[in-house]
Amino acid sequence: MGDSVFLSSIDSSDSLKSLLSGISITSISSDCHNERSGETHDFAVSNNPKRNLSIRLSGRSRESTHNRERLKQIPNEGRYLSAPCQRSHKPAQDFNDNDSISPFLHVLENNGNNRRNQSSPHQQQLAKKKSDYKKAAQQPSKLKKEEKDKKRQEEEELGKKKRIAREKIRTWLEGKKLETMKQKELAEIAQTKENIQAANKRLQQIKAEEMYKEWLKAKKEAKIVEQQRRETERRSRELAELEKRKRVEESFQAWLRAKKANLTRRQTPYTKCISGGVVIKYFDRMAAPEPGFVNKNSWVS
User: Fold this and answer.
1) Basic and acidic residues composition bias: which ranges (predicted)?
2) Against a cut of 0.85, is the pTM above it?
3) Burial bucket for residue 105 (CB in 10 Å: 0-12, 13-18, 19+)
């Protein structure tokens, strides 16, 4: 800033040469050092009025720069420091020659341009704060937008899930309906089969009852026939037995009659014995009667 004001106060290169002829590099380097360290500067006043004007203007620019740089503070030490010097410190030399002054003028112009293009730390801090404020101001809207996008995304996902759920429910209901209809049809078929089986079973029971009745009737008839047969046989046996008994009785009576007749004709019991080589009969009441049957063919020779 001081260099730009200093250059603007010079009208021509001749006046700049005459001005710089009385100023040494040492005073310029000390001016740069004092400007960055924030200390007060004492410049040697020359007899040249243009130089005094440039010094006064440079002093004002330095004061404003110093006021800005005082805002920078290191918290740990509590001191006020300026930014490091970007100028090159060279030994003092005289600028009496035009060839030796032109490079220095070029350096001053470049430094002035750099000063104009480069912002101060205070400006950087203000720009940073402004950027932070802007970000902070944009943060709620950004958060709101993000929240809105997130909510919209959640609503979309929820709607998608609902659609999927409805589709699944519809598919499940259709499947359930088809399954219910199928089960109903199967139940009807099973019921029909059961009814048919029950009817067949009833018919079989009726037929079985009829057959049983017929069999029972036949059994009764057969039993009656068997009883009649047995009765007939019993009667036949009884008649035969009676006939046999009658014949036996008749035979016994005939034998008895014959026996009685034989008993009446029976002689006095006698017994034979041998005496003197002769068979002699004698009366013996205890002797057995003569046999009624005589074997013609005696086994005794």
Assistant:
1) 32-42, 60-72, 143-154
2) no
3) middle
